[in-house]
Design brief:
The protein is α/β, with parallel strands linked by helices and 342 residues long. 37% of the residues lie in helices and 15% in strands. The chain has ten helices and twelve strands. The strands form three sheets. It has an eight-stranded parallel beta sheet, sandwiched between helices. It has a two-stranded antiparallel ribbon with strand order 6-7. Strands 9-10 form a two-stranded antiparallel ribbon. It starts with 11 loop residues before the first helix and ends with a helix.
C-alpha cells in the first residue's frame, strides 16, 4: 500500500471525554435543536438562514462573526432562525493545499489531525457557550461526524458527496436536519434518491461497528446550481426549478418536504454579491405561490467579516481564504431586509 500510517488518533468517545459538553450547554443544544426541527417540519413558520464563512479558518474571527450574528438574531427572531456556518472540513475543489480546520487548525502550519480534531470541537463548543447558537457544518468525511454529533444543529452533504452511499446511510442516523445538495451535474433525481435513502432506516458498517439507523425525517434538498458539460454555471433557484422540486417531492411519501436555496456556488457562479439578489427573487416566488412558501424553508449564504477572499496565508482578519463572502455591513443589511420580506 502506497500509504504511511503515522499514529492512531483518539476515537470520538475519548475526545468527548477530554472536551465534554456540560449540562448547561447540553440544555442549550436541546432547546435550539427543537427550534431548528420545528422550522423544517413546518410547525414554526420562520425562515432558516444558514449563514457564515465559506471555511472556518480562524477561531477568533469566526467567533467574533457569530457574536455579531447573535445581536442581529435578536432583532429578527420572530421571522428568521439563524444557524451559523462553522465549516471545519473545507478543502479546495481539487483537494490540494488547505483542507480546512480539521487538517490545519493553523492554515500557515503543516497538517496536524489530532490538533485539528480538538480545534473543531472547541470552536463549536465556544460558539454554544458564548452565543447560544448551535451551528452547521458540512459532513465531508462521514467517519469524522461523531467528533461533533453532540454539538451540531444542522449538517450539509455536499454536491460531490451526495451520491456516496456511506454519506446517505450516515445521514439516516443523524439526529438533526441534514441537507442533501444537488450534484454538480444537476441531476435532481440523484438528490431525491439521497433524501429517500437518508429518510429510511438501514443496517451498515460505521467506524468498525455494525450500525442500525432509524431514518432521518428531516433530510431535505439544497439547491446549489450546477455545471453543464462545458463547465459553465447554471442556476436552479428560479420559479420553474422550485415547481419541479415540488413535483419530485409529490412522487413519494417523503417526510417534511423542504428546500434550502444555496445562494452561492453555481447559483451565483461564485459571484458572492449576487447572493442578495438571488434570495430576493426566491422570496418573491414564495410570496407568489403558497406551495413554494411552504416548500422553501430558508437560505444558505456565505458571509464573513470582510468582503471577498484572500489567498491562503493572507493577513486580513476575517476575510475568507477559500470562496469569497459577503462582508459584515452587507450581511447585516441583507439579514434585516430578508426579515422584512418574510
Amino acid at each position: 500500500m502506497n500509504m504511511e500510517f503515522e499514529r492512531k488518533l483518539a476515537i470520538p468517545m475519548e475526545v468527548k471525554e477530554m472536551y465534554p459538553l456540560d449540562g448547561k450547554l447540553g440544555k442549550l443544544w436541546e432547546e435550539r435543536e427543537a427550534e431548528i426541527k420545528a422550522v423544517f417540519s413546518g410547525r414554526d413558520e420562520r425562515l432558516a438562514l444558514i449563514i457564515g464563512p465559506c471555511s472556518a479558518d480562524n477561531e477568533d474571527s469566526v467567533i467574533e462573526y457569530i457574536t455579531r450574528l447573535r445581536d442581529v438574531q435578536e432583532k429578527v427572531k420572530d421571522r428568521l432562525l439563524i444557524i451559523p456556518r462553522i465549516y471545519t472540513n473545507k478543502p479546495r475543489t481539487t483537494g490540494a493545499g488547505y483542507k480546512g480546520m480539521l487538517h490545519q487548525p493553523d492554515p500557515s502550519a503543516k497538517p496536524d489531525l489530532f490538533k485539528g480534531i480538538v480545534a473543531i470541537r472547541q470552536i463549536h463548543m465556544r460558539a454554544i457557550r458564548e452565543t447560544g447558537f448551535i451551528c452547521a457544518d458540512e459532513m465531508l468525511y462521514t467517519e469524522n461526524h461523531k467528533y461533533l454529533d453532540d454539538l451540531l444543529g444542522y449538517v450539509a452533504v455536499g454536491a460531490r458527496s451526495v451520491e456516496d452511499q456511506q454519506h446517505r446511510l450516515t445521514a439516516s442516523g443523524i439526529e438533526v436536519p441534514v441537507g442533501m445538495k444537488n450534484p454538480t451535474g444537476g441531476d435532481l433525481s440523484v438528490m431525491m434518491n439521497a433524501i429517500t435513502a437518508a429518510q429510511s432506516g438501514h443496517t451498515f458498517t460505521y467506524r468498525g461497528w455494525e450500525a442500525h439507523s432509524q431514518g432521518n425525517p428531516y433530510a431535505h434538498a439544497i439547491l446549489r446550481g450546477y455545471m453543464n458539460k462545458h463547465g459553465e454555471s447554471l442556476p436552479n433557484y428560479h420559479y420553474e426549478d422550485l415547481r419541479h422540486v415540488l413535483e419530485l417531492y409529490a412522487e413519494k411519501p417523503y417526510s417534511n418536504p423542504a428546500v434550502i436555496i444555496d445562494c452561492n456556488h453555481a447559483n451565483s457562479d461564485k459571484n458572492y454579491l449576487e447572493q442578495v439578489r438571488i434570495a430576493e427573487e426566491v422570496m418573491h416566488n414564495r410570496r407568489y405561490s403558497e406551495d413554494l412558501r411552504k416548500l422553501v424553508k430558508g437560505f444558505m449564504v456565505e458571509s464573513y467579516l470582510v468582503d471577498g477572499a484572500q489567498k491562503p496565508g493572507g493577513v486580513t482578519y476575517g476575510q475568507s481564504i477559500t470562496d469569497p463572502c459577503l462582508g459584515w455591513e452587507k450581511t447585516e443589511r441583507f439579514v434585516l431586509d430578508l426579515a422584512d420580506g418574510v
